[in-house]
Design goal:
About 35% of the residues lie in helices and about 15% in strands. By secondary structure, it is α+β, with helices and mostly antiparallel strands. It has a domain at about 20-25 and about 40-100: Alpha-Beta Plaits (2-Layer Sandwich). The N and C termini lie far apart (about 65 Å).
């Protein structure tokens, strides 16, 4: 049985690149609850740009502390891990601002 092959022009071309949004969706999916949810005393990570969230989510130590994205620039932090996230971010040279409501 003959095997399907790629055209000669495709054999040496790199695979298609994923967009930043596609990579972020894979690393940290956007929460899409079926019904409205209310989180009490939730910790969130908010950044100024979606590319910054992608950078942070690509770091395994940071990614382990994030549950999902709530918006393009906001991630829900694992309950009880906010302090650990702050320490991790500071060790990596970030200067997080803590806001308590």
């Amino acid at each position: 049985m003959p095997r399907a092959s790629r055209p000669a022009s495709d054999k040496h071309s790199p695979p298609p690149r994923k967009s930043a949004a596609e990579m972020l969706d894979e690393l940290l999916p956007l929460a899409e609850p079926a019904v409205a949810e209310m989180h009490v005393n939730a910790a969130v990570l908010e950044v100024d740009d979606p590319s910054r969230l992608l950078e942070l989510a690509a770091d395994p130590a940071v990614r382990a502390l994030l549950l999902c994205r709530l918006a393009p620039t906001v991630a829900l932090v694992d309950a009880g891990a906010a302090g650990q996230l702050l320490d991790t971010l500071r060790r990596r040279g970030h200067t997080p601002k803590v806001v308590k409501a």
